[in-house]
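Hey L., structure's done. Input below.
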Amino acid sequence: MDDFSLDPQLDRDTHLIGDLDLCRVLLMDDQRWTWLILVPRRDGKREVFDLESPDQTLLMREAAQVGRLLMAEFKGEKLNMAALGNVVPQLHLHLVVRRTDDPAWPKPVWGIFPRQLYAPEVARELVPRIAAMLGLPEPQ
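Output:
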């Protein structure tokens, strides 16, 4: 995975949490939702079916594990999971914790409102909290 490179748009829009066995875990920089993005560290992949079968299985396993932990930690009512790729073609999976009182409920979170960025001090606290929840070292 040494040749892996993150799409520049994803890099600009997120905070690095860390790396699971397959996926890079990113926090979307939008304070209204707890929103992680999983990016399989395989260059040139655009769709789940582009991954080899073992990686497809691992992606779903990691998504389920992360989703379960997110819902427990952040008290969600519904987990939205999607692989859109309309703006960023690199394969990535959105995991968004939803609640019936969130600003977009019951609509999707993307494309409705401009992002509300995390205050730097909030991001500095949230990133290591999520990394610890996932059993990852604190990002540098």
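The chain has one domain: 8-133. The beta strands are 14-19, 23-28, 35-40, 78-82, 93-98.

-- N.
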